[in-house]
Amino acid sequence: MSLILRVVIGLVTGLLLGVGISLSHSAWLARIPAFLDPVGTIFVNAIRLAVIPIVVAGLIAGTASGESPRKMGRLGGRALALIFVMLMVSALFGLAVSWPLFSRLNFDNKVVSSLAEKAFSPSAGQASYPSIAQWFIDLVPSNVFKAAADGALLPLIVVSIGFGLALIQVEPQRRAVAVQFFQGIRDAFLILVGYVLKLAPIGVFALAVPLAARLGITAVGALAYYIAILSAACIVFILLILYPTALLFGHVSLSRFAKAALPAQAVAFTSRSSLASLPASYEGVRVGLGLPEDIQNFFLPIAASLFRAGSPMSQIIGVLFLAKLYGVVLHPVQLATVVITIIATSLTAPGIPGGSIIVMAPVLASASIPVAGVGILLAIDTIPDMFRTTANVTGWLSVACILRRSPSATQAAGSAQSSMA
Questions:
Q1: Which end of the chain has fewer beta carbons closer than 10 Å to its terminal beta carbon, N or C?
Q2: Rounded to the nearest 5°, which phi and psi values hold at 139?
């Protein structure tokens, strides 16, 4: 039996048991959620402990592995700029779509209060929100270890990128040792996350029972609502943003782009793996779109490592859903921090099914949203992940069409390949 099927069974069983507990009004059965709460907390903590090492080590190694800005060439700089713009568009699109839709999703105040009492520490007090000036000051922490302990991911991202850029200036042999060290840390924690995810059916069951017991039958409808919104948002994003981008900025007809992207989209949708669709993406770029070979060999590896167009959109939708579920009000400064952090973390999301959800833990913590929500989203991520992965791969081909428009693209990519050889 596949892991996905076992997770689904754990989720459905947990929801049914939780709803049954809610409807039974039995004092004996009501003790079960309290018994399972620690199990769910341990599962979420096991995921959280690996997130910061994965993000920090991945950013340092990825930044330090690059060439100096001059050697990267115009194509590399243009590709990174387009990736950043597309990730920003994805996040803002997700915010614009989900904000009005989730505003219509209402939970009983007593239910929300019950969830909040279980999720928040009684001594936590009222959350404070920094000023704009303080927000910029906090981007440069005086103690990186304290920032890591506090789960402040955005300052750690800033420090990690700065450290990686500094490593570029180090002697190549010594830099290679440091890069291998951080790559080893990232790979080891990815393996650790893989072990944790094997226990996902148990963890998801332990999270689903208390949730359904406190929400009742409303839980099933709320989760279905979230799945429908996220899946539909991915489809609309592909059709209204990525396809027109290839047409308007890449000057590729919609029919030609659709035919070129279809094989890679099919692999992405069925496998839920962007990397698994990389060979089909090469074929679509080379045969379907007829793009220069230099763009294929230079841009697609970068895109496979860094560019996940659907990730920011899905993460912001997940954040808003959990905020609604736990009754958390997101203030403007807090929401801006979430958006920026999501864009940065999407560059480091591990290339595994549900990778975009795993790196959400610090984002939720920064928004004062219970990180236990990660387990809930991970449990129901199978269907949304299919559409999100399809959006990721479509984004590669869309940006590749734009890069083709650069007169110096071939020359720059060829120079970069020579320097990396």
A1: C
A2: -65, -25
